[in-house]
Specification:
By secondary structure, the chain is mainly alpha-helical. The chain has helices at residues 2-8, 19-29, 45-54, 72-81, 93-163, 168-184, 189-198, 211-214, 222-229, 231-239, 245-256, 277-292, 303-312, 324-343, and strands at 34-37, 63-68, 85-89. The N and C termini lie far apart (104 Å).
Length: 347
């Protein structure tokens, strides 16, 4: 009777002979709506409904359960099993028509939403791929720009070092000394990378110092020394107003790497924590390398002599010039400084 009523309403139907078959047909045929009788062999209507609602492919199919008139128990059980609607016996043609149309309308809305979700997911996936491709291209462009910037920095610094009768080996050594100290201080990776590339620019201002002062083989006069000290200010001017993190730190180091922890340095005479950390690190790295290197006014000291000078002081150097923590790191890591110098020794 119910099947005929559905056919008269213009719907195509398929019938299952038991509850298990109903579940199988729901999975294989994916109907738009299921009318479930409670009393069926092998698996009753409630269990069949629960099973259908537990399967992702069929859980959105509306299920109308047939109940006896006034059966509150069937209503509660049906709701607990996931039923979407109920149809009472004896069947009323108009009620059946209304319930079928309402549930099919909900199914249509669900199918439309599902289709839109698929479209949206496809668009999101496509857009994600496009964004990933764009990010990859930007990353590559950034790396190329970064490499170009670093090459420019290296060449500019190297030009300055040649003027001071040093070589590119000095640049490499300063980078590695400062990296060791920054790592031992537990600094973030970004700081370590910045100081590695920025510290070789510490003396870039020497490009503005006259050769007769820069290369003088003897002691400088007071007037000449005042001119020499201006290389810190010149270097800061050369590197100022840059957007590059390397150059920003390079400017700080160029200006302040001759400041001393006890306040006896130059050009500003600042002390302690007022000296930027990157400059405090570069200070001891530069001091070590300068002592190990030949200069127009001095011979090169070996590692042991340099270690003693930096640790205990001499007529020009005092342990109080250095931040205690950084000085302690040098003391505990001085053999690594020696290894770096020996590996990248001047030709």
């Amino acid at each position: 009777m119910l099947n005929n009523m559905c056919l008269n309403l213009g719907f195509n139907t398929i019938e299952a002979s038991n509850g298990e078959e109903a579940v199988d047909m729901a999975c294989s045929s994916n109907p738009d709506l299921i009318i479930m009788d409670v009393i069926m062999p092998k698996m009753n209507g409630f269990d069949s409904t629960e099973k259908i609602k537990s399967i992702s492919e069929t859980k959105h199919i509306p299920v109308i359960i047939i109940t006896a008139l006034g059966s509150r128990e069937d209503l509660l059980t049906g709701i607990s099993k996931g039923a979407d609607d109920f149809l009472t016996k004896p069947y009323d043609f108009e009620e059946l028509s209304m319930r079928l149309k309402n549930n099919l309308k909900l199914k249509k809305y669900h199918d439309l939403l599902k289709e839109n979700n698929y479209i949206l997911e496809d668009k999101v996936e496509k857009r994600t791929r496009e964004l990933q491709q764009t990010l990859a291209e930007l990353s590559l462009a950034h790396e190329k720009t970064k490499a170009a910037n670093l090459e420019t920095i290296y060449r500019l610094t190297l030009a300055t070092e040649f003027k001071d009768q040093a070589t590119g080996s000095h640049i490499k050594r300063i980078s590695m000394y400062t990296k060791i100290i920054a790592e031992k201080l537990g600094m973030e990776q970004s700081f370590i990378e910045n100081i590695f590339h920025a510290s070789p620019m510490h003396d870039i201002g020497k490009v503005g110092i006259p050769d007769y002062i820069l290369l003088k083989p003897g002691l400088l006069s007071d007037e000449e020394w005042e001119v020499m000290k201006t290389h810190t200010l010149i270097g800061a001017r050369i590197l100022e107003n840059s957007e590059s993190s390397f150059l920003k730190m390079g400017q700080i180091i160029a200006l302040s790497h001759h400041e001393r922890w006890d306040g006896t340095g130059y050009p500003q005479g600042i002390s302690g924590q007022d000296i930027p950390l990157s400059a405090r690190i570069t200070n001891i790295a530069d001091q070590y390398d300068a002592l190990r290197s030949v200069r127009p006014y001095k011979r090169a000291y070996n590692h042991e002599e340099t270690y003693e000078i930096l640790l205990k002081g001499d007529d020009k150097t005092n342990p109080g010039h250095f931040e205690p923590d950084i000085h302690s790191i040098f003391k505990n890591s001085h053999t690594k400084f020696k290894e770096i110098f020996e590996t990248f020794r001047e030709s």
